[in-house]
Amino acid sequence: MMCRIKKSAAMVLAAVGMVFAQWQNLFPVYNGLATDGSKFIAVSGDGLIRTTTDGATWPSHRFINDEDGNTRQIYAVAFGGGRFVAVQNNSNYLYSGDGGVNWNSVQAGPGANIEWKHLAYGEPTGTWGFVAVSASGKTALFDDDGWQIADAATPLSHVAGARRFVAVGDGIRRSSDGRGWGGTAGIPASEKIAVVAYDNVAGKFVALSKDGAKVYTSTDSENWTSATAAAAPDMADMVFANGKFVAVGKAGKASVSGDGSSWSVATLNPDDDFKAVKFANNAFLALGAGGSVYKSDANGANWERKSGSSVASYKQIAFGGGKYMAVGDLGVWVSDNGKKWEKSNVEARNLNGVAFGAGKFVAAGDNGAIITYDNAGDRWTDYSVGAGENLTSVAFGDGVFMIGGKTGSGSLGDSYKPIIYRSEDGANWDVNTLTDMSGWDEREYVNSLCYGNGKFLAAVGGKNGALRIGGKNGLYWEVAQGLSAAADYPMISTVYAENKFIAVGTKSDGVSIVLNSADAENWQALPSEVRKVRSATLAAIGGSPTYIAVADSGNIYATVNGSWYLQSKVTNRNLSTVYSGGGFALAAGAKGAMLFSDAPPTSVKHASAPRAAKSSKGGLMSLNRAGRTSAVTLSFTPVKAGAITVYSLNGRQLYKTRLGAGERSALLPERVMSNGSVIVRYSGEGRNVSQRFQIVR
After folding, report:
1. Which tens digits make up the pLDDT trace of 100-147?
2. Phi and psi of 590, rounded to 5°?
3. Which residues have CB under 8 Å from 455's CB, separation 6+?
4. Domain shared by 120 and 175, yes or no
5. Buried b (16+ CB within 10 A) or exposed e, 42-71
6. In total, how many domains does the chain have?
7. Does residue 72 belong to any structural domain of this protein?
8. Residue 182 domain-assigned?
9. 329: domain CATH number?
């Protein structure tokens, strides 16, 4: 029977904020991986949920905000019982009942805001449940009764589920239902265990010690035997599939065993710590915390790289001689196309700026670091200068390289002093001898340099609202005029792009200003709708030039028709530099953040997720109200009988009713909806679908 109810906006779905990505995150901070057998779902500390079938292409991206617009770090994800579940850095959990297409956020209740280490699905005592474990010893069970917190008494890092759950960390803990936890015979808490997996063929749990020297096995989860092993240490995840145990972990190591006794070790990417591994589509997929993606054939032994990794904090990007160079706190990264990046073999050091000219790159950084890359000879040469100097930026123009910075500690009783190095060949550097610094105040220094329209421009630190123009090959510097709008702003960045100088200033309270000028003398301020901006440029991508500004927390702003619009996010890491050229843009920043976009900016403002939408369309259920009557309606027609169950947010069952085959709607008593917010679950024909609803008054 179909129940037709007049639609009303009184009941709405409180859904998690999600947007499609216009920017691509080249190096996500992967934390977890799950599969339903046909696709992989990856989650990251960037707040991303990504989908792939082969590890090479990731057609689906979701960025998670909470209802207040705060970005989420997603700790772990698992699949079971027809649904994906993920845990994050707040008291809500995420779930999807349609294969990872749509995700909902449901409040887990008090005490659930824990940094969960791992999540696994099991079917204890014939039911089902997801268990999350933490280093604090707290565990959480999500099942038909909601989300319940328990205490396993010891720090835990990994969990496996079957007809019971086994969690490992300081010793091994077991549970028949995911609610109560007990010890195991012969394994004290002093034993450090890294990972555990269940062999569903032999019917046994297998665990590896943290040092990789021992393997533990059990058929009943209570009595365990140990033997020597030759696995890699510090494994972070392990799966049993296709007759193989495959574990991955620190320093890119992978450990493989056919029986849980004899192990072989391979190195995937020594520069990345691998966090997750799963099996689907006749292949193993492994993910690293720095963004690495590796795929193996069905034997788990032969691995193919799908994408690399990066953990550097980038400061500046330049292009020349067919190469892109990005510099940061761990040296130099190189790319031919802006998407695939490789670490250069130059000695790692903290580099702040890079520029290309006269067939070579010059990079500079802390402790007087200056290195020059000869494009023809494909080699780096070190020309470092005074160790007490902090070199902040590099520019090339009119046949001259200029490097700006500061010297001095800036501590009480001391002050920074400006310093500028000048070179015509990138090898011989003169400091201040050919450059007149007499007009600079003692506390001024160079924050950023660029060149365009026959002159150098410096963003001056140590004095608010200050830009300086360097003419005649940078020999003399004059104070730029017409900057009254920026008088209260510390100027932190300068760029010359699309025949414009662009300068950025940001106050300590996060308020930012972006200025532009054709000649560095007549300045215009863009609309002041941006915050915590670190760099900006003018980009021509798919149309007329557009200003792009990058900021903290992964925010990217772009101008459309003269107004700033916050673009769709793909990271929560701070962004510090932006580059545009070749029909695309790059934004980069802290902890390996490197973003790519070849799409024009959007004029849709990506704000935080609303607390209540005006329609619940698009979910797997809708909840509508007419007068005092409420009805829940499925978005699909079940072919078998099922049940509708309503829970309070703390997991207490409020109401349950049968839903016949072919029926999509069920009426709910008035008393049920008096709670204001409820979780409604449909169970039937092998699937479980849940959504949270709340009344908007």
Report:
1. 988 887 777 778 889 999 999 999 877 889 999 999 999 999 887 778
2. -70, 145
3. 397, 469, 470, 471, 520
4. yes
5. bbbbbbbbbbbbebeebeebbbbbbbeeeb
6. 4
7. no
8. yes
9. 2.120.10.80
